[in-house]
Amino acid sequence: MGQALNYIVADDFTGANDIGIGLVNSGSNVSVILQQDDGILDLSADHHYIFCTDSRDDDCSVAQAKIHKIKSSFPQLSQQKILLKKVDSTLRGNIGAEIEALAGDDFPLVIVAIGAPSVGRTTIQGVCYVDKLPLIETEFASDPKSPIRSSRISDIISSQTDWPIQNIFLNDVRSPQLTEILMLHHQSPPQVVICDVENTQDLSSIYQAAISLSSKVLLVSTGDMTHVVPPLVERTIDRSRLIETDAISMLGIVGSMSEVSVQQQKRLEGSDNTHVIDIDVEALLSLNHEQYCSMVVGQAVKFLAAGQHCFLRTCSDVEQRHQIINIANRLGLSRQELGNKVKFTLAELTQKIITKQKPGSLFLCGGDIALALCHQLNISKFKLQGITAGCVPWGYLSYPQLTSIPVFTKAGGFGDPTTLLQVIHFIEKRI
């Protein structure tokens, strides 16, 4: 039973890439496994594998079923001394339910360390903050699919599990006796311990204490945690030479309705070589959607064929996110059903575009949109290569038509207003 984090579990695609990039930057080989039922058995010992369950927006029972399935298919996960579980840094998803299913009888202690200091996410006195604002006062409280109901982490976890929960505040996190403090919480039945995180050193202290414990630990954290995890194999790689594409055109699919994402898209407007196509969600899902999709495909293909960048977006204004429930009602759908229909239809639309005109690169914003496209193309693996613009991981998909196309993924709420421009500049200067 080793301490190396060969296997990690994440609940969405961009989150899996986010936690993988810290390992890539230390020289490790990292792949995100997108399909767990296609018989992948040859798992290399010197490779990190991140299993994406795509369960963030599922009902609790469905999310737990996916966790049980992956544990059954890959018993290696539960054989690690520490199993790292990536969750959303703003606590969306089935955190409590997935903790319960993943820990089970295998991990008697669950340590929750919600902090991504690099993007302004911290936990103080058990409360999650985004850029120093309590979570409930941010845009994530009105998330179209998974709105947040509390800033207190214990409230969110306890809404999905009845396991006992304790808090460890900053004074104890920074104490030399942190390992001993955590040992006091190692008991049966399994217990959840929430640790405060204000900076990267706090994450490092929590990780070091976890590996010092005699018991197995389920460590629930964010992408920043792997920045303090040692690599499986020490190596130095020049990743600046790994762009293989020889075409400049980028196809972007932006399904996120985050305010940050909207700001980033607006910076693209008016550019001579970048075109933004606004997707009418109701037209996309209407009875005449084939005609509408054909028009969008034609526009995108024309821009890409001319060597220009083309971005498809579902939200051009922050007020649109508040209209989602009205659109769902008009279409006779629940909020979740609407989200699922949009992501799968966008995936079909994207497949039609790349079949007609192969782009030089892909940009996918929103983990559900990115993963829906991978499922549409029956892609099983994503090989991570690096990061650009500070928050945009990139790599290559295991798909014949896209093997030489760099694919960039971004979580909706990450980055600053110039992030998309930085990604475009990154690809242009390497052509």
What does this structure look like?
The chain has 431 residues and is of the alpha/beta class. The chain has two domains: 221 residues, 3-Layer(aba) Sandwich (Rossmann fold), CATH 3.40.50.10840; 180 residues, Four-carbon acid sugar kinase, nucleotide binding domain (Molybdenum Cofactor Biosythetic Enzyme, Chain A), CATH 3.40.980.20. It is 34% helix and 20% strand. It has a 15-stranded mixed beta sheet with strand order 9-10-5-11-4-1-3-2-16-17-18-15-12-14-13, with helices on both faces. It has a three-stranded antiparallel beta sheet with strand order 6-7-8, with no helix packed on it. Strand 6 and strand 7 form a beta hairpin. Helix 2 packs parallel to helix 4, helix 11 crosses helix 13 and helix 13 packs across helix 14. The longest helix has 22 residues. The radius of gyration is 21 Å and the shape is globular. The mean pLDDT is 89.
Cα separation of the termini: 46 Å
CATH topology of the largest domain: Rossmann fold
Helix content: 25-40%
The CATH superfamily of the largest domain is Putative sugar-binding, N-terminal domain
Report the C-alpha radius of gyration, rounded: 21 Å
Q: Please tally the β strands and state the result.
A: 18
Strand content: 15-25%
Q: What is the total number of structural domains?
A: 2
Q: Figure out the total of helices.
A: 15
CATH architecture of the largest domain: 3-Layer(aba) Sandwich
Shape: globular
Which stretches are low in confidence, meaning pLDDT under 50 for 5 or more residues running? none
Structural class: alpha/beta
* Biggest sheet overview: 15 strands, mixed
